[in-house]
């Protein structure tokens, strides 16, 4: 249940729909409005500098936000809706990944070409490990006890043994690397090779590339999310504002959709099957996954530079860190407008 009154929520929702509909008409595009209502704008700490990836620890109800411009990880309590800590010393932090089973958080310090291991309970840095050039996204393969770090400019993935906090390998991928994700069904790692229009598949047992999947229509395939039960991969292409749907069984692209300019981070709410695509332009697109097909639910402006999104599957709330809102860094929290079945 949302904390605001029903009357207040309806008023906000109605205003949002009216504004987004007017924008769509003015642009000459008839599209459904964004099916989200803002339920809170919570001030964040630090300066009005760039934010990057975020990761939710559902066990502790903590959201870890990479404040790239400030070089800190901001920790937000999703129950109390307030910042509880800032973890400094992570230079130009891009990626952040909470791994509750290890009681740990990992962050990619792009300013020093390192991945940083953090104690999730004490919120203190445990170790620093070298990566390649410009580490960005990360994925954890639990069966292999390995962390995979995308080296965007280095054209590789760094492999970290999380039991020893040591780098154990580097996997050359042949081009700039976008986001990296783990597929629990195959047990493999998938990485976007964004300058090649290819999705690379890595076997953690050998740390070898076992397949390179061509992505027709991809230009700058950066963002990535894997819907393991449906055997689908969703790929955000930042250079042509396109979302691709890849069938992991046939290894073919089955659909493409227009999204906001500069799509970046994707998030998925599994129970309703909602896929969020956040973009550098601030436009967010929402889709519904119906079996193995997608249906566009709406698209519209969420906030300036709203290129990062995390969804809490327990509450269905989505979190968007904004660089500046009314002159201050802000965390915009939204909830779906439509009733769930």
UniProtKB/TrEMBL annotation:
<dbReference type="InterPro" id="IPR011048">
    <property type="entry name" value="Haem_d1_sf"/>
</dbReference>
<protein>
    <recommendedName>
        <fullName>40-residue YVTN family beta-propeller repeat-containing protein</fullName>
    </recommendedName>
</protein>
<dbReference type="InterPro" id="IPR015943">
    <property type="entry name" value="WD40/YVTN_repeat-like_dom_sf"/>
</dbReference>
<dbReference type="InterPro" id="IPR051200">
    <property type="entry name" value="Host-pathogen_enzymatic-act"/>
</dbReference>
<feature type="signal peptide">
    <location>
        <begin position="1"/>
        <end position="26"/>
    </location>
</feature>
<keyword id="KW-0732">Signal</keyword>
């Amino acid at each position: 249940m949302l904390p605001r009154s029903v009357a207040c929520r309806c008023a906000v929702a109605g205003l949002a729909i009216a504004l987004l509909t007017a924008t769509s008409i003015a642009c000459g595009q008839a599209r459904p409005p964004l099916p989200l209502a803002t339920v809170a704008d919570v001030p964040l700490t630090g300066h009005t500098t760039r934010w990057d990836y975020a990761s939710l620890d559902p066990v502790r109800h903590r959201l870890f936000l990479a404040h790239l411009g400030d070089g800190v990880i901001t920790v937000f309590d999703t129950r109390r809706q307030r910042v509880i800590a800032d973890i400094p010393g992570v230079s130009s932090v891009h990626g952040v990944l909470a791994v509750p089973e290890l009681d740990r958080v990992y962050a990619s310090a792009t300013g020093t070409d390192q991945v940083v291991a953090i104690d999730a309970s004490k919120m203190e840095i445990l170790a620093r490990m070298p990566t390649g050039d410009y580490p960005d996204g990360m994925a954890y393969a639990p069966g292999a006890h390995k962390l995979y770090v995308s080296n965007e400019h280095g054209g590789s993935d760094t492999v970290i043994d999380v039991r020893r906090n040591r780098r154990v390998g580097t996997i050359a991928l042949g081009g700039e690397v976008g986001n990296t994700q783990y597929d629990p069904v195959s047990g493999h790692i998938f990485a976007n090779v964004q300058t090649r229009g290819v999705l690379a598949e890595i076997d953690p047992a050998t740390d070898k590339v076992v397949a390179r999947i061509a992505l027709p229509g991809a230009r700058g395939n950066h963002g990535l999310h894997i819907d393991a039960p449906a055997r689908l991969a969703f790929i955000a292409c930042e250079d042509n504002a396109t979302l691709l749907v890849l069938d992991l069984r046939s290894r073919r692209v089955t659909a493409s959709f227009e999204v906001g300019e500069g799509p970046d981070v994707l998030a998925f709410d599994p129970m309703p099957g909602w896929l969020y695509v956040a973009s550098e332009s601030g436009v967010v697109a929402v889709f519904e996954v119906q079996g193995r097909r997608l249906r566009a639910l709406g698209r519209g402006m969420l906030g300036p530079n709203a290129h990062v999104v995390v969804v809490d599957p327990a509450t269905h709330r989505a979190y968007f860190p904004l660089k500046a809102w009314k002159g201050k860094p802000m965390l915009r929290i939204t909830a779906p407008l439509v009733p769930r079945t």
